[in-house]
Write a structure and sequence with these properties.
By secondary structure, this protein is mainly beta. The protein is built from one helix and 16 strands. Strand 7 and strand 8 form a beta hairpin.
Length: 187
């Protein structure tokens, strides 16, 4: 029982301290176009259902409901057994990473933007909505998703483009064409 509790605690998002710093444009760099998605085409919508197979288990089935709920297969994360699925409603969108080995589903705020090493990633909810903006931080370890937590957006700033992702910071631009470095530390 103690082992189960420890394993569950290890999976909880960690507390993150973070800092925003406006930086000059010269410090802002774009990562080389990281291609992290493959699209083998084996997962297509059939009869209003998107079926993602899971090894040795029942598949994950996502059923479209007309204009209310729509699921779209985006692709597989390169060199993993993870499939990215986009979930659309009239007012919102989410992204799911489906583990085709375990059947586990991780919910992301957006499509992930990966670091050059393909391990670290961040997601930011849609800056075009009136919702508070967050940046979600995660990593891939042995082909599994580990969500570290999320950072609150800076009040009055809407991040539009995530440039580079590193293990402890992210470079972004905002809707006023300012450049920011978001540094974070896990506690």
């Amino acid at each position: 029982m103690k082992l189960l509790l420890v394993l569950l605690l290890l999976q909880l998002p960690q507390k993150i301290s973070y800092n925003y710093a406006e930086i000059p444009a010269s410090q802002y760099t774009h990562c080389k176009g990281i291609k992290y998605l493959t699209k083998p085409g084996q997962f297509k919508l059939k009869g209003g259902k998107l079926v993602i197979p899971v090894e040795g288990k029942s598949p994950r089935v996502f059923k479209n409901e007309g204009e209310i709920y729509n699921y779209e297969y985006v692709g597989d994360i390169k060199d993993t057994k993870l499939s990215l699925v986009k979930f659309l409603t009239p007012n919102d969108e989410d992204y799911y990473l489906i583990n085709r080995m375990t059947g586990g589903i991780d919910t992301l705020l957006s499509a992930p933007i990966f670091s050059e090493d393909g391990i670290h990633f961040v997601c930011a909810n849609n800056p075009g909505t009136d919702q508070k903006q967050y940046i979600q931080i995660g990593e891939l370890v042995d082909g599994a998703v580990h969500i570290k937590g999320r950072i609150n957006g800076k009040l009055g700033v809407r991040y539009l483009t995530i440039g580079c992702v590193y293990s402890n910071y992210v470079l972004v631009t905002d809707d006023d064409r300012k450049f920011w470095k978001l540094t974070f530390t896990l506690k």
